[in-house]
Every structure is written in C-alpha cells, then in structure tokens.
Amino acid sequence: MIQYIKSEIIKCVYVPIIGLIGFSVFSVIFLVFLIHYVDVESIMFLGKNPWIKLWNSGAGFMSVFTFVPLLILLISAVFHIENQNNTWKQLFTVPVSKRKILLSKLSAIFILIFTFCFLIMISIVVIGWYLNHLYPESEFSYYPLQPFYFIKPTCITLINALGVIGIQFFLSLRFRNFLAPMTLGLFIFIVSFLIGVNNTPLSHYFPHAYTLIGQDLQMFTIDKIGIVDYGLFNSIQVYSVSMFLFFISMAIYLEEKRSKN
Amino acid sequence: MSNSILQLRDVSFAYTSNEFILNGMSMHVPEGSIYGFLGANGAGKTTTFKAILGLLKGYSGNIDFQGSNIRTTYPKYLAKIGTLIEAPSIYDHLDAFNNLKIWSNYYGQTKNRICEILELVKLENLGSKKAGRFSTGMRQRLGIAIALLHDPNVLILDEPTNGLDPFGVEALRGILFDLNKQGKTIVVSSHILSEIEKTANHLGILKDGKMLFEGTKSELHNLRNTNLEVKFTIDSSAKLETLKDIHSYRIISDQVIEMHVSNKNEIPMIVKYLIENDINIYAVNQKNIALQDLFLSINNTQN
Question: Which of A41, A185, B1, B173 could link A72 by a cystine bridge, Cβ 3.0 to 4.6 Å?
C-alpha cells in the first residue's frame, strides 16, 4: 500500500496542486500577519504568551476561510489528474484492487492536507519571529512556542472537515471531471457558510459548515446551534466522521460496481 | 488451438437490451503468437480488450486467461498482461522516468528495470523533459514502455500505430517482433489492415461484435484463393462465344473480361482454352489478395 501511496504522491507533483497549496498557505499567513502587524497591541498582554494568540489566529483563519475551499479544489484537482491524462483505464488494469487504488489516493490527499497544515505552522513561527524583529516589545522570543495551541484546533478542524472530504471524494470520482464537482462543492460551501455564521441548528445538515461551527474559534457565536458534547467528541464531529465513512464506502462500492471504465 | 493463452467463449455485452457491442464473440489467442485483431471502427475491438482487462462488468460468457476464468483471478492475472488501450496513459506533467516510476510502484518493479525499459524504447536520454512535450511517436513508445514494465507474458495493444509516421510504425513493428522472439504473446488491434498483415501471424476478424474469421494468416490466404476474381485482357471479347459453355464470365469492355473462379487451379485451364481458340491473352490479373481485400470480402460475404 505504501508503494501505491508513493505513486499517488508523484502524480501530485503537479503545478496546479502545488500552487493551490502555496496560495492557500499564503492567504492564511498574509491575513494573520496583516492583522497582527496593523494591531500589534492585540498580542501584547503582560504575562501572556503571544504565540498562543498567533496560533489561535492562524488556526481560526485556516478553519473558517481556507480549509473547506482548499479541500474542494484539492480533491477535485487530484482526481482531475487522472481525467485530464486519460489514465483511469490504465490505472484499473494494474494487478491491484480498485479499493486499494482509491484508498491510496485518499491517503495522498491526507498527506497533502497535513503538508498544508505543517506549512501554515512553520509560516506562523516565521511570522512570530518577524513580528518580534519589528516589535521587540511583543516578546515572542521570551516565550516558548507551544505549538499545541495550533495542533489541537487543527486536528479538530480536520475531523470536522472529514465529511467534506468524503463528499468531495465521492463527487470527484463519480463525475470524472474537474468543473462539476468543484462548482458543486464551492456552491454548497457558500450556502453552508452563510447558514453556519447565522448560528442556527440548520447548520447540522450542512457538513461544509462543520469547520466553522464544530469548535469555538472565537470568531462567531455558535451557542444556538445545539451542538451536543459527548466529552471527547461533539455531535458535529460524530456526524462528520459518519459522513466520511458513508461517502468513502459508497464511492468505492460504486466504483467497483461500475459497468464500464 | 489447445495452447490458447487467452480464450473468450460466447462473450456478449450490451449497454441496452438490444444494442449488442459483443454478440456471442469467441476468440482463441495461441501462446507465443502475434495475434492481429481486425475490425472496422465500432466493431467491438476495444470493448473486447476492456472485457479481457476487467474494465467491463456485466458481460455474459467466459474469458479464460492461462486456463483460469478471469472473474475468479481478478485482479491478480493482470500482473501477466501489459496493456496499451486507446491512447497511451501518460501523465503529461511528469517526465518519462517518473511516469514509469508511478506504474513500477503498482507492479513492484525496481529503478533498474525502469532504466532498462527506457533504453529498450529509446527514451533514455530525455532528461527532465515533460511527457506533455513528447511527439506522438515518443508518447506511443512510452505507452509501450508502461505496458512492458512488469515483463508481462501477454501484451494487449489497441491500435498502437495510431498517429505514428511510417518510421514510427516501422520502429514499433521491430519492437513487437523482438518481443515475440522473446516468447511474448502479442494481441494487436487495428483497422489499418496493411499494418496487421506485416505484423501478425494469427488473425481474428471482428464485425458487429462477432468473430467472422479466426486462424493463421495462411489459412486466411487459402480461404481467399478459393474464391477469386480474375480479369483477362484479350484481343477481342467477340471471339468468346463458346467460353460460356465451360465458365461464366462478365464482359467489362471489348478487350477485358472478368470471371469468378472457385479455385485458383481453374485459371490455367481457362488460359489453355483461350489459347486453343486463337484468342490472344495480353494480361491475366488476379484481384489483390492482400488482407485488406480479404477483410472486405469476408465482411461483404456476411452481408
């Protein structure tokens, strides 16, 4: 399976995919830097670690504005590589089951997502150092990095986004083109975003809004949505994981049953 | 054909209940042969290949590869088959090496094998040139390289000469002959009949999802030799009054007659008759027995 994932990674060394990740990282980092550059006093509280504020901002911007659109475009693009090069037929004539091929593609998508998160993390550190250079009074150099404040919300965002990953994976595999799943995904995201920011229980029915409402990112109120906390997980995360499993299973099942490739 | 490496028995496939792409099709590919699979566009060649490669579900009948039904051995049996279906499957944004690297991971092949194959298809010195900038011939060779990467027993090539110039066709033919000498069975489809004629030693002719003829090239030639159109150029057809007593003929012009003979041995008898009746013969033309003509005549017979 590792060999198959390596193949998928080689395929993903593709300018639009690299550009997409690069642009997404840049847009998050640019927003984080701009906000703290303009309002540097927001991170300067006596006795408080400025890194925490910076990590939270990075995780917040990433979860709200970038993560879902990136997933939609990224997954569509990963499948588009096969569509554009007309390689599906050859891919399904290797002595490997379709299930393994598709799961290795899914694994490659996760590797790309982790890469994106890792690049954001590194970039936030660079921003912190740079802000410290511009404003020594911000005291970034006096406090430990404490990246857990980024890793934890990012992991929760990733769990909240699993439903979107499943849906987009399903759409991209079924449509076998770039425009239809991408347009559909982005349309659902815009609708979900508008519903998600309105603090309404209706958001439960829109997995594309889960990254906004699945945790308190201190960007908008989510108290009226009716999220049930089960301790380790909440209802949003349970729905997200369930949708992921359902759509991935359906995608693989239908592909194995597809009458003609 | 007891040594068939690949056998299709009564295979039928339809997208809708009355639109059969394959209609009771049977096929036997002898081990070690170059099997030319002839058929007009839409005859069902690619569909046949897709069925063999497990890309088609819901067909009836049986397909055996090395004696085992492919339904039970899917996808393991594919490790012994190399394919080039329709256009070569190439990732345009990658160079030749990385294209092969992708497929080598699925087949468990080494870097050395990739270099070996690149040398075989003469693509070893391209550096990091992206496949999207390759010529048609180079793409076709890379497609062949992908098919050969895992050293398969059987190569299935769907119209491999499409888009190639005569030099490319010649080079490809050379590669196929070399591979066949190494013991590989090659199934090659085409509607370019002259190409198949030069390459294959066994033939299958497909029309409307049915196999019209299957056998060796000489069997096909023999078949055609028993059903010939012969044209005689003589001094005057006016002298032919008694010829119709021994053989029917058509007058094409004052000096040209054409007749249908069921066996080529009849031709000397007719020539002898003409000479004995003081008819000067300027030319005797037997219609071209190239495969193209055979192919058309077999198709026409069925009509």
Answer: A185
